[in-house]
Amino acid sequence: MESACFVVTALAVALSCFLHDEALLRSAIFSAAERQKKLGLLAAGDARI
Q: Where is the signal peptide (predicted)?
C-alpha cells in the first residue's frame, strides 16, 4: 500500500512539473510571437517611409 502511495505521489509531481514546463513553453512561444509581430510592424513602418 505504501509503494502505491509513493507511485501516485511521484506521478503527481512529474505531472505538475510537466504542466509547469508546458506553461513556460507556451509563454515563451507567445512572447516570441509577440516580438515577431512587433518586428514585423516596425519593418512595415520602415518600408512605408
A: 1-16
CA distances from 23 to 10, 28, 34, 37, 44 (A): 20, 9, 16, 21, 31
Task: Note the pLDDT tens digit of each residue in 27-41.
Answer: 888 888 888 888 787
- Distance, in Å, from the CA atom of 31 to the CA atom of 35, rounded to the nearest integer, reads 6
Distances 39 to 6, 24, 31 between C-alpha atoms, Å: 49, 22, 12
Cβ neighbours of residue 18 under 8 Å, at least 6 residues apart?
none
Gyration radius of the chain's alpha carbons: 21
Q: What pLDDT, on the 0 to 100 scale, is given for residue 1?
A: 60
